[in-house]
Each structure stands twice: as C-alpha cells, then as structure tokens.
Amino acid sequence: MALVPVAEALERLLDGAGSSGRESVALMDAADRVLAEPVVALRTQPPFNASAMDGYAARAADVASMPARLSVIGMAPAGRGFDGVVGKAQAVRIFTGAPLPEGADTIVIQENVRDLGGGGIEVTEPTAEGRNIRRIGLDFSKGDILLEKGRLLDPAALSLAASANHPYVNVVKRPLAAIIATGDELLPPGSELGPDQIISSNAYGVAAAAQSVGARVLDLGIAADRKEAIAALVKKAVEAGADVIVTLGGASVGDHDLIHDVLTGEGMTLDFWKLAMRPGKPLMFGRMGNIRCVGLPGNPVASLVCSQLFLKPLLARLGGRDHRQDVREARLGAAMSANDLRQDYVRAVVKEDADGLVATPFGIQDSSMLRMLADANGLIVRAPFAPAAAAGAPCSVLMLR
Ligand SMILES: Nc1nc2c(c(=O)[nH]1)N[C@H]1C(S)=C(S)[C@@H](COP(=O)(O)OP(=O)(O)OC[C@H]3O[C@@H](n4cnc5c(N)ncnc54)[C@H](O)[C@@H]3O)O[C@H]1N2
Ligand code: MOO
Question: Which structural domain range is residue 392 located in?
C-alpha cells in the first residue's frame, strides 16, 4: 500500500468534521468555550447619560468662565440618581457611574472645586458642555450583535456577554476523546517495574494536547496485548459517548499490533493507515459511525508529533475551533542530508538572532527519545525528497512552544 502524503491524510481526517452539538452553560463556567450562536445585547450600556468622574453636575453656561459659585442642591451616587432638576447656579454632588441629573450638561471634577461651606462651592477651572459624561449607548445598544458565532470566550468576551445581561451562553459542546494505551510492557507512572516493563507515558502528553484545544479526555488506561482486552476498552469508549477514540501503540505490523483488527471488528471502516511521514508512519484513521478512530503510533515521539499534526486539528474542528500550526521561516543551524519519501519532522532548537530564526536539528532523531522532544521547541519540516541543505539554508519550522 502506498504511503499517504501528510496533507492528504489531514484532509481526509478533517473531512466532514464539524461542531459536535451545542449546550447552554452558565457564564461563570464558559471561559475558553466557543460560541454556538451570536451574543446579542439585551440592554443598552450605559442605559443613561452617566457621570465618568467624581465631582459636580452643573450647567456648562454657569461654569464656562471664572469665578463661578454654585449651590449644591443634592447628591447622586451610582445606583441612586438625583430626582430634581439642576437650575441656574446650582450643582449636584455626583459620583462616577451615576445618572446625569436633568438640567445638568457637564461634570466639574472635584479636583477643580473648592468647598465654601454652607452648601456653596467655587469652581476653579472652566468646564465645557458634555465634559466627563458618558452618553447613553456609548458602549452598545440593545439589539447590537456583540460577539459572533465561533468566538472564543476570552475574558473580554465573557464580561461583555455579562454586561449584555446574559446569565447563560450557548456554546459548542466539547468533544470527548477517549484514550486507550495498549501493550503488555506498560505500567502507569509510580509502578514497580519488572525487568521487561516500561512506563506508559504517551497518554499524558496526548491528553494534554487534546485538552489544549478544548476537548474533554476520558483516560481508559492500559489494555494488554490481547484482542479482547483492547475490544473491552473500545466498547467502554463507545458507551461513554466518545467523539474520537485514540489508541496508543499497536498500529504497525508486528504480531502484537492488534489495533486494526480490533477496531474493524468493532465496526470501524478504515480510511488510511501508513503515512509518508517520519515520525508517525503507522498512523491509522477510520470511522465507526459518527466516531472517529485515530490510531497513534506507539513510539512516544511519533505519538506526540501525530497528536500535534492530526489530533489537535481534528478535536479543534469538532469543538468549533480552527487550529493553525505555527509554521515559521528560519535558517538551518547545521547542514542536513537529503530526505527520502517521508515528510520529516526533525526535532530542533530554534533561536532568534539578528537576521531571524535559526533552527538547529538534534543529531539523533530516534522516535523513542522523549527528553529530546521536550528539549526541542520546534520541528524542522523537511519535504519528501528534499535535497541536502547547507547550514544557513532556508527552512520551515513548526513551533512547539
Ligand atoms: N517492521 C516494521 N516495524 C516497525 C515499523 C514498520 O513500518 N515496519 N514501524 C515502526 C514505527 S515508525 C513505529 S512509530 C513503531 C510504532 O509501532 P506501534 O504503533 O505498533 O507501537 P508499539 O509496537 O506498540 O510500540 C512501539 C514502541 O513504543 C512503546 N510504547 C507503546 N505505547 C506506549 C505508551 N503508551 N507509552 C510509552 N511507550 C509506549 C513500546 O513499548 C515500543 O517501544 O513501530 C516501528 N516498527
Ligand atoms: O512513527 Mo515511527 O518513528 O516513524 O518511530
């Protein structure tokens, strides 16, 4: 079977992937969620002409020239407006956010006022009409579309929705990714290991990648290398309502690589398996009704690189988001040899110098080496059959952090 090019694999994986439903959530729980519909203002803000400063509401005609003496006839704190009318040579003590009293058309800030005692004040700076007043609807008016569908609810968006008087918002459901590790050799972190055993590490990074694009994660633990054991966890994932079933390992051609048989046995139709990519060649993708199955390769670096390139865009799309890889132009910090037919994602340290970014590949690129992946902040992307390149040659880097 010919190896599938990376771009084609991504296209096939994302084909038909859209938002996985909507739900109403309380605004306090809506941070980082994606709007399933626009937010429309249910009120006007400010709902009245409001003072923007602490001071005195007055008539501009009275405070246009100095000296100006006014008598204070009342008070207007925020939340309790003054009922009367400000007449000639009168003022109302006012505080930020309070409604402008009738008759007044300017606010003299209190720094520009001297208290004369007995309810009299002297204004020390001329103040023009409209000063320090927030006009009704300055921020928004009832019926305005304030936030578009698809908007991520960041801090400003959340406060705006609240101000528009929405206690709940309709957001896209977070897709559920069920993760199944496979392998007789695997035990969870913190275990006493036997001589042939290692720690199961992939699920942790894969779960974090899924969560970083808003997905929920169901960690189903580790299945032994037996078809029934894997099938039991796949059934659990289906019962839990997983949108994506992510398997770890068992995707290549070894006698114990059972994932393909188990998933097809549970009703998966295979879409592709084996990519022209390094690391990540054994990546598998198929569909089981509405559930998407992503079989990640077992080698830890392959598993995480495939999460970055395929799982994150898929889960983002199912959650109503767009995920763009951060690919930048750089120069090679060391020579690289010619590439073969697999698109290569080469672990590298990317630094900035006076002329831009310099990406220096690590000398060893074994896809079991997690420490090197953690040390890398970028992946140099080498196209299939890229010719040898000298240090200083231009390259593309996918930034990881
Ligand atoms: N004859 C061939 N052999 C292999 C091929 C191939 O094309 N022909 N592909 C190689 C490549 S590339 C990769 S990547 C691996 C991936 O194979 P599997 O997906 O079947 O993974 P396993 O065999 O189950 O495991 C490989 C390796 O990774 C370790 N592993 C697995 N799961 C985890 C986990 N959750 N946490 C940590 N480490 C894990 C496992 O112990 C193995 O060392 O196959 C090559 N072979
Ligand atoms: O996914 Mo494998 O590296 O290509 O180790």
Answer: 327-399
